[in-house]
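input
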Amino acid sequence: MINEFAKMIKECDNIVFFGGAGVSTESGVKDYRSKDGLYATVKEYGISPEEILSHDFFFQHTDVFYDFYRKYFIIDAMPNSAHKALASLEEMGRLKAVITQNIDGLHQRAGSKNVIELHGTAEEFYCVSCGKKAYTKTVLDSIKTKNIPKCEHCNSLLKPKVVLYGENLYDGVAESAIDKIENADMLIVGGTSLAVYPAASFVRYFGGKYIVMINKSETKYDGNASMVIRENIGEVFERVMKII
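output
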């Protein structure tokens, strides 16, 4: 199967990767919906992580939000084999875009240049009042010391540049992702259950030659795939890159 996957990649020169939380689990980042993920394991707040990660909760209980954020989103993680392989495929000219639901910035850290972050990034913050972007290190230092970060210009609340539940995607992001998928001759979908909308619906815009699904659990798009691989995504890419 790995040999066939490598052959597909070699045939195509407009590949798009669409990924989710499972891409980063081998880097030590928790996913959301697996039995070991945030939604199943985080119980100490007495409410669900989905509620904590919502627009209304952020503004109503900012202290709890940032305590959760400090524990589960400010972590030292390094790119794994999947991130590195995708950066290499882009450097070869085969991969045209990484579309990610993740907010951890690991694709960029691995060297990927053309990354569309559907849900924003945990590494940027802006003021909810004046809109000014904040210096990331100062904000992270504040959160790590259990403070609520404030804008240095107007002293209003700072918010991470991430899409919370109840919020729309940032302007232009969906259009860019759909355009890349529509024009691809190969779509690799990895580390995502395709359960979060509207992002999950973007896959249906693909009309190219090959669609490969790499995910440990079943997705509703598996029946449309040219190939389905139920293995760790990092290990899959490590093996396939040795062939390529």
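quick obs: The chain has a mean pLDDT of 94.
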